[in-house]
Amino acid sequence: MIGVLKVIHLLAAVLWIGGVFYAYVVLRPSVSYLSGPDRVTLWDRVFTRFFRWVWVLIAALLISGYGMLFSAFGGFASAGYLHAMQLFGWLTIIVFAVLAFGPYRKLHAAVAAEDWADAGETIPRIRRLVHVILWLGVVSIVVGGGGSYL
Ligand code: HEM
């Protein structure tokens, strides 16, 4: 059972943070030649599809993470690196929620209303939050994967 939970946890982390890496490091500079309506519409479509998956992946991370914690790692009395895992995991999830319910929601509404100026204003804030999520996600993976060896 612990093996199944671990594989689910690892897959969810890889798919989520791998997707963030792809969006920030590969897609963003590749589409920088686009501007105006094309650019914001593309980001709206990319985020709408990706974020649906991210909510599923977050649910999988939490269920498998707390499943492992309470079945095999002593619950809240677990080793220090697992407190760090929870801290960075929750920070990553909270910043994602801020992005999803804040500037992404505004971008989505502005694109639907064809208000291109409003939509464009959300992009720098989204970029900063995605950058923070990428770093927090990488730290979570380093802590979760390497913590027991340190
Ligand atoms: C917030 C709730 C979370 C809890 C309770 C939790 C709990 C755990 C536990 C118990 C382990 C096993 C540690 C070990 O085998 O020594 C683990 C490993 C791991 N966690 Fe988390 N985690 C959480 C969130 C996250 C998040 C958000 C990410 C990444 C975005 C993440 C990525 C990882 C990775 C990559 C591993 C290593 C898996 C492996 O060694 O096979 N975790 N976590």
Structural write-up:
The chain is mainly alpha-helical and 150 residues long. It has a single domain, classed as Four Helix Bundle (Hemerythrin (Met), subunit A) (Up-down Bundle), CATH 1.20.120. Helix content is 86%, strand content 0%. It has five helices and no strands. Helix 1 (2-30) packs antiparallel against helix 2 (36-72) and helix 3 (80-101) runs antiparallel to helix 5 (116-146). The structure holds protoporphyrin IX containing FE. The site of protoporphyrin IX containing FE has 25 residues, from helix 1, helix 2, helix 3 and helix 5. Protoporphyrin IX containing FE (HEM) binds next to helix 1, helix 2, helix 3 and helix 5.
Q: Level of helix content?
A: over 70%
Which structural class best describes the helix and strand composition? mainly alpha
Task: Indicate the mean pLDDT.
Answer: 96
The CATH topology comes to: Four Helix Bundle (Hemerythrin (Met), subunit A)
Ligand inventory: protoporphyrin IX containing FE
User: Major sheet, described briefly?
Assistant: none
Number of helices: 5
The CATH architecture assignment turns out to be Up-down Bundle
- What gross morphology would you assign? elongated
Query: How many strands?
Result: 0
What value does the Rg take, in angstroms? Answer: 17 Å
Distance between the termini: 25 Å
CATH class: Mainly Alpha
Measured by DSSP, the beta-strand proportion falls in under 5%
Unreliable runs = none
Please, how many domains? Answer: 1
The H-and-E topology, N to C, reads as HHHHH
